[in-house]
Amino acid sequence: MEGVKKYAPPITLNAISSKYFEDKVCKNEIKALQNWDGKIREIRYSANPFAIMATVYYDEAVKKGELGIFYFSKAGKNWKQFGSGFDDMKKPIF
After folding, report:
1. How far apart are CA 83 and CA 69, in angstroms?
2. How many structural domains compose the chain?
3. What is the phi-psi region of residue 62: left when phi exceeds 0, alpha when psi lies from -120 to 50, beta otherwise?
4. Residue 44 has pLDDT above 80, yes or no
5. DSSP annotation of 13
6. How far apart are CA 61 and CA 88, in angstroms?
7. Which string of DSSP letters, residue by residue, matches 45-58?
8. Distance from C-alpha of 77 to C-alpha of 89, rounded to nearest angstrom
9. C-alpha–C-alpha distance, residues 77 and 90, integer Å
10. How far apart are the C-alpha atoms of 89 and 36, rounded to whole Å?
11. Coil, strand or helix: which one is 68?
12. Angle at 90 between CA 61 and CA 53, to 5 degrees
């Protein structure tokens, strides 16, 4: 739980407790990560007036033609998870 808090966006810190991992969304993400081989395939960066963003392609998604990705943002010195973090993205969009 402390590792999750370290990289979680500040707005979600209060919601992270031991019950956080019982949520259906979290369970699906944990299952996906358990099947992941640990390799980062590619990282794409972008910027906006508020932060630098990173879209990280980490795995083929369950759906054909989509990639498993997660988002990070950096405002200041540290990278933090952006939004819910995990998502699927169509290959041509990535």
Report:
1. 12
2. 1
3. alpha
4. yes
5. G
6. 6
7. EEE-SS-EEEEEEE
8. 27
9. 30
10. 16
11. strand
12. 95
What number of residues does the chain have?
94
Q: Which pair of structure tokens corresponds to residue 16?
A: 């992270």
Identify residue 39 by its one-letter amino acid code: K
pTM of the model: 0.74
Q: Which two tokens stand for residue 26?
A: 């979290």
Q: Which domain holds residue 82?
A: 2-90
| Amino acid making up residue 64 | K
Other C-beta atoms closer than 10 Å to the C-beta of 80 total 19
Q: Are 81 and 9 in contact (CB under 8 A)?
A: yes
Long-range Cβ contacts of 35-43 (<8 Å, 24+ apart)? 35/59, 36/68, 41/67, 42/94
Cα–Cα distance measured from residue 71 to residue 33, given in angstroms and rounded to the nearest whole number: 15
DSSP annotation of 52: E
Mean pLDDT taken over the chain: 82
